[in-house]
Amino acid sequence: MSIKVTPWDKDNHVFAKHNFTLSIDTNSAYKTIYTMQYSTLTIATLSLLGTRVSAKTISIEVGRNGASFSPNSVTAAVGDILEYRFAGGRHSVVRADFSRGCTPASNNGFSSGLQSSGAVFQVTVTNTDPIFFYCSAGSHCQNGMVGVVNPSSAQSLDKFKSTARASKDNVSPGSPFGGVFPSTRGISAARAYQPVGGVAAVAAAAQPH
Ligand SMILES: [Cu+2]
Known about the structure:
Blueprint: E1 2-5, E2 8-9, E3 14-15, E4 20-23, H1 29-36, H2 40-54, E5 57-62, E6 69-70, E7 73-74, E8 81-86, E9 90-91, E10 94-96, E11 115-116, E12 120-124, E13 131-134, E14 146-149, H3 157-165, H4 189-193, H5 196-206
Parallel strand pairs: 5-8, 7-14
Antiparallel strand pairs: 1-4, 2-3, 5-6, 8-12, 9-11, 10-13, 13-14
Copper (II) ion (CU) is lined by residues 63, 67, 91, 135, 137, 140, 145.
GO molecular function: electron transfer activity
Protein name: Plastocyanin-like domain-containing protein
Domain Phytocyanin: 73-145
């Protein structure tokens, strides 16, 4: 059947002046008319909520059993949060490009900076492409302290490990970026990314000797 629909204008508590015609399955006609009385904004908000509810936090332990990430291979969807939990020693997590081993990613990178046990660094997944990461401490990357999110057969963890093993340098990008330390989540990015130690070091360096 074909029916005329008059949307409900939520702000003014009246039916909108403009109508449109809808072809509809008679069995669900009542339900659809009911739904149409809510504003587009309400429907949009509901779909946003739907997306948020399905996002999950994926914990990856850093350094609990020596120089390693555990797990070192995870699957993540868009909106999920990678939560790197530092659990021993002094390590970092840095995003790499698949083909470049122990070198920071050229785009959409992230880096926690060197952290000790207790630190938590969160990175939000923005697409489902493979994400490779490594630890920039010592020769940890060359020695296999690497991991992957959403590996493929073409871009596998084993292939990345081989490239990492052959890397001449293990590159540290310096101050953290591309993620947040959750205790500072919600504060402006520049502050959140700046660790307390980093600020003190900059202040000390600025003092005359
Ligand atoms: Cu390490």
